Amino acid sequence: MAATSSCIVNLGVKGNGNPEQPFSSSKSSQLLFSSNLSFAYNNTKYCLSLHSHQTLLSACLTKTKKSAFVVASAKPEHLKIMISGAPASGKGTQCELITKKYGLVHIAAGDLLRAEIASGSENGKQAKEYMEKGQLVPNEIVVMMVKDRLLQPDSQENGWLLDGYPRSLSQATALKEFGFRPDLFIVLEVNEEILVERVVGRRLDPVTGKIYHLKYSPPETEEIAARLTQRFDDTEEKVKLRLQTHRQNVEAVLSMYEDITLKVNGNLRKEDVFAQIDDALTKLFEDRKLNSGSLAA
Ligand code: AP5
């Protein structure tokens, strides 16, 4: 994969609305304009994006052997969604359904960490020690990993669905400082006795990445059943430690997103959980289209 570098500049203009005196330090001054300018590049492509008033203006410059060309566009900004919940509350399962319908880029902090472990890197080795104890991996490893993934061109162009991040107040604050603000913060609420049963019965297909459950979502064929794997932290003992960590941090994270939180009953069948989320996302998507239409008019 090509290495990606990036930066974000947050622009805010305060004033009293009078063009003769655009800046005022008085208490009556208000935020008139707020935008994020971001720049990302890898070995082949440079992207400049300006997010303002729910509209994304972007310009991409692609390097070819002899020439370069620029594509610029103005279109409704894509959705930016976060999904949160206790271990095995169904975040990954719902993300599969959401991405299928809405085409957002699924970014799961746990998956990024497991990929780092699989790569055999020093960060991966350290991360595994914390994950085995059901504790949060230190911010030095997680924060930049998530930020870099959010800034990749696919996330910027299609919108993102962030799963399992932030999990602490410091992670939420870091994200805000980098200029990432979600449109919706989904919280899956599931009773604890159900969570343990879901963890112990969970299996993963290493070929397709699909999530199964021996009882609730069994594999479709014998061939798939034979290749399913279990996560190293999916034991009853470890899920109790993970739940403890979750309880210690959840309130602080929720307090950051109170005004955009959607609480979902996650005890139901996965299709019924998705129906609640789908309803909210459809409304958000329609509002977004209306807003960008009135801006263009
Ligand atoms: P992570 O991989 O994120 O694990 P988690 O939060 O514990 O969540 P899970 O992936 O276990 O569950 P899920 O909610 O996605 O449920 P799923 O859909 O699979 O993190 C692992 C570790 O990495 C952490 O402990 C920590 O150490 C570290 N880490 C991660 N993020 C970090 C961060 N930001 N900072 C620091 N450290 C971090 O479903 C579970 C099972 O239930 C499946 O079998 C599924 O088929 C079944 N199921 C799902 N929905 C339903 C339903 N409605 N009805 C019946 N069964 C269902």
From TrEMBL:
This is adenylate kinase. Monomer. Its main location: plastid. Belongs to the adenylate kinase family. It is an enzyme of class 2 (transferase). One of its GO terms (molecular function) is AMP kinase activity. Gene3D superfamilies: P-loop containing nucleotide triphosphate hydrolases (3.40.50.300). It is found in: Plastid, Chloroplast. The keyword Oxidoreductase does not apply. The lineage of its organism: Eukaryota, Viridiplantae, Streptophyta, Embryophyta, Tracheophyta. It comes from Salix viminalis (Common osier). The keyword ATP-binding applies. Keywords: ATP-binding, Chloroplast, Kinase, Nucleotide-binding, Plastid, Transferase.
